[in-house]
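Hi all, posting the design record for the shared folder.

TITLE: backbone redesign
STEP: 1 of 1
STRUCTURE INPUT:
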């Protein structure tokens, strides 16, 4: 546009934006081409980590669930390696989501399968925590009883070197047990919680509508919320978790199972 022909009071003429036909290819196609092997590679790597973790537990065979020391050794090994399945599931789900993005469609079966594996593993880690703590407590009591037994046999004079040694042994035992329980349980809780969250993201991907767990059965709207309930409905909801929901679009009231009273069956 030249200086003379420019009139600031005249509306600009809309110039059509013409993209060269190869623009879409040059922008998107090479990236997609380079990324195409990545989802499968990530899946393979994640599966290798996950299966490696499972095979690693073969050293604990044959299982002796009734044996406290076996249970402690097994759980300590599993908790120590808890980050391996966590990384494995993260890589697998990352691969699935990248594959979904490149394909432009959700692979619901894979999302559901690995989401559920993540959630189950996460709950196993978290549920192992009280079991481990109880078992360590049993062993601690047993060892303390042993030290007390020895003390009774030796009968050290109060304030003597022997008495101090027994006190030190008790102190060291308590310290070691506390540190072990804290470290192992922290590992298990952190990895377990992360696995449950990751798995729930995987399961969420299987839904067409991500915002809610279920929609209005009348108009399929997502705009639903917990409905005001009369006393009988409220007591039913309290005991069975069957809540009444209300559709904002069409006003339809319907009953659904929801653990938390939110428009999801469970926590998500
Ligand atoms: Zn509706």
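Okay, here is what came back for every position:
SEQUENCE:
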């Amino acid at each position: 546009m030249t200086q003379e022909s420019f009139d600031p009071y005249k509306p600009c003429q809309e110039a059509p934006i013409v993209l060269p036909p190869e623009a879409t290819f040059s922008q998107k196609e090479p990236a997609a081409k380079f990324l195409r092997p990545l989802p499968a590679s990530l899946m393979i790597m994640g599966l290798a980590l996950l299966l490696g973790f499972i095979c690693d537990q073969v050293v604990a065979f044959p299982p002796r669930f009734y044996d406290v020391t076996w249970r402690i050794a097994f759980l300590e090994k599993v908790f120590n390696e808890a980050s391996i399945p966590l990384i494995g599931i993260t890589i697998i789900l990352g691969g699935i989501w990248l594959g979904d993005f490149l394909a432009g469609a959700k692979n619901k079966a894979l999302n559901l399968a690995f989401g559920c594996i993540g959630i189950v593993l996460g709950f196993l880690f978290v549920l192992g925590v009280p079991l481990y703590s109880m078992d360590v407590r049993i062993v601690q009591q047993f060892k303390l009883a042993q030290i007390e037994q020895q003390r009774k046999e030796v009968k050290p004079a109060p304030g003597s070197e022997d008495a101090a040694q027994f006190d030190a042994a008790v102190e060291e035992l308590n310290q070691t047990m506390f540190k072990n329980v804290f470290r192992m349980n922290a590992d298990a809780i952190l990895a377990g919680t992360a696995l449950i969250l990751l798995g729930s993201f995987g399961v969420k991907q299987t839904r067409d509508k991500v915002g809610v767990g279920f929609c209005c059965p009348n108009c399929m709207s997502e705009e639903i919320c917990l409905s005001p309930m009369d006393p009988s409905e409220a007591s039913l909801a309290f005991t069975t978790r069957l809540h009444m929901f209300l559709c904002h679009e069409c006003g339809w009231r319907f009953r659904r199972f929801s653990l938390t009273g939110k428009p999801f069956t469970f926590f998500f």
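COMMENT: The pocket of zinc ion is lined by residues 216, 218-219, 221, 247, 249-250, 252 (CB under 6 Å).
Let me know if anyone wants the other runs.
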